[in-house]
Amino acid sequence: MNKISPEVQTGTIGELLVQLRLLQYGVQAAPPIKDSGNDLIAVRGKTFRATQVKATTGSTYSKANLPDLYNILAVVHLVGNGKVVFLDKSRVFLIPKEDVDGLSTHVDRLEKYKLTKELVDKLFQSSEAT
Length: 130
Prior knowledge:
It contains 3 helices and 7 strands. It is α+β, with helices and mostly antiparallel strands. It has a single domain, classed as Trna Endonuclease, Chain: A, domain 1, CATH 3.40.1350. The strands form 2 sheets. A 5-stranded mixed beta sheet has the order 1-2-3-4-7. Strand 2 and strand 3 form a beta hairpin. The chain is globular, with a radius of gyration of 14 Å.
């Protein structure tokens, strides 16, 4: 088996944590079969959202290499000690694409985007309901 780099490990843990946390609120998320530039496709009812995931163990995250087409940037702040990740202490933030450019890259400044039922309901509101 090929070795997994620390960057790939961090990114994969971030993607899996986003999938789990979204599932808590009735959103199914999975990676596309072919890598078209989006990390996850998230679905609730008839609402689909292309989702980019940026995971970090530090105090900031990177906006580098975001694709042109996506709906949500999920920032995952992983909390851990060495190789141990404390999933219950790790935080997930969901940022609509239109808010990304003007936003700080410090995770402590993302509180308004913390994954909550209310935010998920807003981001996955059916277009039929509007």
